[in-house]
Amino acid sequence: MEALLDEQDLWDVVNGTETMPNFGPNSKAVKAFVRKQRLARAKILLYLSNSQIPHAHVEDNDPKTIWDNLARIHQSQGFGRIFSLHRELSTMVKDPEQPMQAWVASVQDLAFRLKSTGFEVHETSIIVTLLGGLPPEYSPLVTTIGAIPPDDISITSVVNQMLNEESRQQPSLHNSPGFAMYTRQMQKPRDARDTRYKADSSKSVRCFNCRGHGHISKQCPSPPADPESEMDPNEKGRNHKQANLVHARTASSSSGSTILL
Fold first, then answer.
1. Listed residue (110, 112, 37, 35) closest to 67, CA to CA
2. Would you put residue 97 in left (φ > 0), alpha (ψ -120 to 50) or beta?
3. Which terminal Cβ of the chain has fewer Cβ within 10 Å, N or C?
4. DSSP SS3 for 206
């Protein structure tokens, strides 16, 4: 809260460093100071919890008075607050459904609140809470980290190992029932299309031996057919004429005579 007020240049009005200028109530300096007081008071009241409101004297327009009342209440309950936060930190337990990052954030947030009371929180205490609050399935990880020398352990390294272990323990997407169902649903239409494509392709294949469909001539079960048996009559005539011409030319060259067709 102090940092928020300081960021907006209001902390000096709250801690008493900046006081009311010795000018008339209508002067610019006095109006600016009153405006800062009202803004600082609003910021403080917005961040109060329900249990703090009765002790803050919110009816007072001076933010310094409100702040001093709150400080006095918290100082009188200082040890009780420290004890409560410390006990809460040492007994934290991770919920099985809680993501690891959320678990780490909750522990670090409580440790920060305990530090803000002036109590010294060692890094080892935070690590003990992080590991001690894990579910039983993380016991091998806790045992492994427990064997590391204390000087070689840091919060960063422990958190990284915890996140890696969480990723390892989570079921793989490809092995999950949802992914298997999704795969089956996606494969059915594709397989159906492939089957239809293969059927259509087989129908479009024609054998040059028997003129049937569904296979090629090398796979034809029928005996080899006469090449001219299935030939068009016109094509047969042209082939016979070409054969006669070749025969005549051959005979002419051998006898020296010319034969006209």
1. 37
2. alpha
3. C
4. strand
CA R_g for the chain: 46
11 vs 215: CA distance, rounded Å = 91
> Residue 77's pLDDT is what?
54
Q: How confident is the model at residue 176 (pLDDT cuts 50, 70, 90)?
A: very low
The pLDDT of residue 188 is above 70: no
Q: Which two three-digit tokens encode residue 16?
A: 């008493």
Confidence of residue 48 (pLDDT cuts 50, 70, 90): confident
Backbone angles phi, psi at 213, to 5 degrees: -115, 155
- Sketch the domain layout of the chain as residue ranges: 2-76, 79-169, 171-225, 233-261
Count Cα atoms within 13 angstroms, Cβ side, for 191: 6
Beta bridge partners of 213: 206
Q: What is the dihedral of CA 216, 222, 226, 231, to 10 degrees?
A: -50
- For the chain, what percent of residues have pLDDT higher than 90? 24
What is d(CA 71, CA 61) in angstroms, rounded to the nearest whole number? Answer: 17
At a CB cut-off of 8 Å and minimum separation 6, what does 161 contact? 141, 144, 145
Q: With contact defined as beta carbons under 8 Å apart, do 162 and 100 qualify?
A: yes
